[in-house]
């Protein structure tokens, strides 16, 4: 289990619980009995509690959205990141400019339940076994480069040392070294982690990863039957 995800969930849960506590009077008619000074204090405390949620717990969504837009694509994390930034910014405007309560408790709840869902997804992936049959989802053929020419060959005919051309959204069929291109590999198919991992020339790319972005060239290090 990803300890970083657990820690982010704990931070979001702690902040969300306390923000709900400070915001609770606003949901009842007795809020007027607190007076403006206490209401203002609670709003400022909510801002302080929202800072670790916004700048730490939500960082995976910012990173994933940025990589997606950088590759001229839109994934699910783009609208989520926009919503988080909008909610936080508008709440700051309401609290410091309009003198109202804002929506920091909603922001905390949003991140808490998003991360809880991500934890459940990761736990589900852990229970799945890919030891025997996950290669069944690989393509039946791949593009091999030979003397600067492209040829489509069956996956079963791949050999160590073959140079492959992997385009956007295509799976890496065998453990390979990155030969050329900008690689952003999504291993969610294998690990459940949907944030693409940037790879540099010469780094090893594992079978089952999906390229996000421009086409890349790889040198096969293991045959598909040896994929781990």
TrEMBL record:
Parts of the chain that traverse the membrane: 5-24, 44-62, 74-96
Keywords recorded for this protein, A-Z: Cell membrane, Ion transport, Magnesium, Membrane, Metal-binding, Phosphoprotein, Translocase, Transmembrane, Transmembrane helix, Transport
One GO cellular component term: plasma membrane
GO molecular function: copper ion binding; P-type divalent copper transporter activity
Keyword DNA damage: no
Entry's Gene Ontology BP terms: copper ion homeostasis
Protein's cellular compartments: Cell membrane
One Pfam family this sequence matches: E1-E2_ATPase
Topology term for the membrane: Multi-pass membrane protein
Gene3D superfamilies with a match to the protein in the record: Calcium-transporting ATPase, cytoplasmic transduction domain A
Ranges of residues in domain P-type ATPase A: 139-226
Superkingdom, taxonomy of origin: Bacteria
Entry annotated with the keyword Cytoplasm: no
Name of the protein this chain belongs to: E1-E2 ATPase-associated domain-containing protein
Organism: Nitritalea halalkaliphila LW7
């Amino acid at each position: 289990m990803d300890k970083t995800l657990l820690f982010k969930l704990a931070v979001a849960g702690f902040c969300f619980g306390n923000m709900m506590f400070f915001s609770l009077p606003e949901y009842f008619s007795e809020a007027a009995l607190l007076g403006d000074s206490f209401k203002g204090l609670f709003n400022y405390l909510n801002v302080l509690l929202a800072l670790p949620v916004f700048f730490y717990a939500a960082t995976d969504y910012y990173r994933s959205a940025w990589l997606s837009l950088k590759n001229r694509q839109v994934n699910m994390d783009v609208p989520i990141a926009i919503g988080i930034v909008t909610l936080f910014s508008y709440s700051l405007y309401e609290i410091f400019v309009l003198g109202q309560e804002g929506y920091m408790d909603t922001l905390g709840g949003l991140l808490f339940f998003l991360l809880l869902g991500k934890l459940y997804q990761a736990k589900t992936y852990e229970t799945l076994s890919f030891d025997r049959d996950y290669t069944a989802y690989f393509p039946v053929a791949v593009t091999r480069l030979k003397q600067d020419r492209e040829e489509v060959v069956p996956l079963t005919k791949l050999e160590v040392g073959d140079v492959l051309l992997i385009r956007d959204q295509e799976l890496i069929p065998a453990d390979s070294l990155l030969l050329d291109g900008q690689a952003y590999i999504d291993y969610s198919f294998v690990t459940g982690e949907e944030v693409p991992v940037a790879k540099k020339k010469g780094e090893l790319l594992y079978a089952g990863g999906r390229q996000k972005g421009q086409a890349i060239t790889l040198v096969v290090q293991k045959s598909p039957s040896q994929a781990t």
